[in-house]
Design goal:
CATH class: Alpha Beta
Number of strands: 11
Shape: globular
Distance between the termini: 28 Å
CATH superfamily: DD-peptidase/beta-lactamase superfamily
CATH architecture: 3-Layer(aba) Sandwich
Helix content: 25-40%
Strand order of the largest sheet: 4-3-11-10-9
Largest sheet: 5 strands, antiparallel
Number of domains: 1
Order of helices and strands: EEHEEEHEEHHHEHHEEEH
CATH topology: Beta-lactamase
Number of helices: 8
Radius of gyration: 20 Å
Length: 333
């Protein structure tokens, strides 16, 4: 199960900014700066060895091939990156999959950006009206929120964002998208997509993206290269509250923090002889002690139940390899 971590912090820009080591604007400061979620590891000595993941890659490829032979999966794409200046590993990382709910992360990023012009935006209230339901079969949520939003009830932007990142709530997402169109005359969400290197879903079609391309968004948050350090920290902290533990989280030991976003998509044929095609993805940052890494796994197959253990096992194999590389006498902070 995903661990829930509470850290002491100070209020910055309307939300709590948590840090183990406080970042200092003084380049000559003696303290090595580090925040909880954002990259502040540059001045720490290596914790694990940094060789290429050749053997692990081959092991995972053999596992994928076996799952394909068994009919468990149709396709898998994987991207891994050691976020402390370490190597990367990709398997079918340029294959394209449906983005599904993964594009909800830019919605969070857009609202965090709007805090500059309106620090109270997380307190704005939006009422649930008719028209926010997503009735198309392919968009019905297999991993549904534990409770539904109530009609005509008012919810703050902050509450809806929490539901988007914790439960991947489709209705909350649609409400937030609609409110963005009210707030700004220009399509600010479209601008976020473009600035992050993502292409918006124009024309209402099913948008696809490669594993590596989507994974880059988590690196942008980790390096605080799009949002400020404080806002990047907030975004990753919120993502770490995701309740989805049937993917990456299930492959790491209990207590390891994971900031992740999953996505699901179902494709159904009118022909009863054609089986449905499901896609299940999970991408995020695993905060291995003092050496976080990025992992993104996208899968395609005939059932979500069959795809879950594939993501879990790939996550487990990567975590075990990272852990096996830990140096015998890592530096003490």
């Amino acid at each position: 199960m995903k661990a829930v971590v509470f850290l002491a912090g100070v209020l910055v820009g309307g939300f709590a900014y948590h840090a183990f080591w406080v970042s200092s604007p003084n380049p000559d400061a003696l303290v090595c700066p580090e925040s909880t979620f954002v990259n502040q590891f540059a001045c720490i000595e290596p914790i694990i060895s940094k060789g290429e993941y050749i053997a692990t890659k081959q092991k995972i490829i053999e596992y994928i091939d076996e799952q394909k032979r068994q009919g468990t999966i149709n396709d898998v794409g994987i991207y891994f990156r050691d976020l402390r200046n370490g190597p990367t590993m990709g398997i079918n990382e340029y294959a394209e999959f449906s983005t599904a709910s993964l594009l909800k992360v830019p919605i969070l990023i857009t609202y965090l950006n709007l805090l500059d012009s309106d620090p109270t935006i997380f307190d704005h209230e939006i009422a649930l009206r008719e028209g926010f339901e997503t009735n198309e079969a392919g968009f019905k949520q297999h991993y549904a929120p534990p409770s539904a939003l109530e009609k005509d009830a008012a919810y703050t932007v902050g509450m809806l964002l929490d539901r988007v990142v914790q439960y991947s709530d489709n209705v909350a997402s649609e409400m937030l998208r609609a409110y963005l169109r009210v707030l700004t005359p220009d399509d600010i969400l479209d601008e976020t997509y473009k600035e992050l290197g993502l292409v918006p879903d124009e024309g209402g079609g099913d948008y696809v993206i490669s594993v590596k391309r989507y994974a880059s968004m988590f690196r942008v948050l980790f390096n605080a290269s799009y949002l400020s350090v404080e806002k990047s920290e907030k975004a990753l902290e919120m993502l770490s509250a995701s309740t989805f533990d049937a993917g990456i989280v299930a492959g790491v030991p209990e207590g390891i923090i994971v900031a992740n976003k999953f996505g699901e998509r179902g494709f159904y044929s009118a022909d009863p002889n054609v089986p449905p095609m499901m896609q299940l993805h999970d991408c995020g940052i695993v905060y291995y002690p003092d050496n976080p890494y990025l992992i993104c796994v996208m899968t395609r197959g005939n059932s979500f139940e069959a795809l879950e253990p594939v993501i879990q096992n790939i996550s487990r194999m990567i975590y075990e390899e990272v852990d096996s590389r830990r140096l015998p006498n890592p530096p003490v902070k």
